Amino acid sequence: MVPVIDLADVSFVGAGLVRPECVLVTAAGNIYTSDWRGGVAHLRPDGTQVLYAGTTADLPEGPRPNGIALEQDGSFLFANLGTEIGGVWRLDRTGQIRPVLTEMDGEPIPPSNFVVRDASGRLWLTVSTRLRPRSRDYRRSASTGFIVLLDERGARIVADGLGFTNECLVDPTGSWLYVNETYARRLSRFPLSQDGDLGPKQVVAEFGTGQYPDGMAFDTDGNVWIAGIISNQLLRVEPSTGQIEIVLEDSDRAHVAWVEAAYESGTLDRPHMDTIVSTKLRNISSIAFGGADLTTAYLGCLLGDAVAIVRMPVRGVAPVHWHFDHR
Fold first, then answer.
1. What digits encode the pLDDT tens for the residues 1-55?
2. Do the Cβ atoms of 14 and 40 come closer than 8 Å?
3. For residue 243, which phi and psi values (nearest 5 degrees)?
4. CA torsion sign, 45 to 122 to 301 to 40?
5. Cβ–Cβ under 8 Å, residues 204 and 187
6. Average pLDDT, the chain
7. How far apart are CA 288 and CA 266, in angstroms?
8. DSSP string of 26-95?
9. DSSP for residue 219
10. pTM of the full predicted structure?
């Protein structure tokens, strides 16, 4: 057990952000968030901020970055969550955008959720659903999500049939790939071989009322921290037991009940996800450990315009991009 965090201890950094769904932090204190103004927002340690945004004819509705990854050269990868075009795209700090992975086997990749590199340099991409519109798969029965791996062997689907695939991460041991299945409401993992192939899926934890897992991060004790949309909860999961602890919560009970009723009746849709609720946290969607000792959490969100920050009772594992600093 870890101490429950008081909501009063949460503060915010940044201003005017647009859908800062995914947040990254580096050792030098730089904060980066996806931003639907067409790129990535950079919150500098001195309090200033800048937007790296661009356009390309290849994305006629404009870039819709959901998950982002910081590259060693200072550029960014983003999973595009447009209505038609998905895949992985690269954005540099001058605003140039170019495709990285947009097709597989001659077919376009559907609107995409999350992208990350692991310590071996392999690129992982999640696609939540093959259905259009995506809201058709806001169901307990969701099963069309998948995970793509891009490595020296090329791009291939390594896991399929997932219940609305969200963030995925290779664990600190390099032995497992963890993934959140948002509308199936479970945290799952796959044994990971050295060549990137995955073994049979294991369900680590199943979540309850109002708990829709989105982002994740690991702490140094081997536990998984989950940012839960709708419930506005920060959850700690112990992988060996599946035990779930609510460590931070800012739930609007009436809103959660409305969403739950729609979920149970199979009518959950965009209005349930996009409604502004009367909470301090604005539909938290990702978590990144940072600060000098990696004991500060930075929380991305779907409906706010800033990044929540709070001191944590544990130390996080440094991400792959921890020392990728380009001021």
1. 899 999 999 999 999 999 999 999 999 999 999 999 999 999 999 999 999 999 9
2. no
3. -65, 135
4. positive
5. yes
6. 97
7. 32
8. -TT--EEEEETTTEEEEE-TTS-EEEEE---TTSTT---EEEEEE-TTS-EEEEE--SS--SEEEE-TTS
9. B
10. 0.98
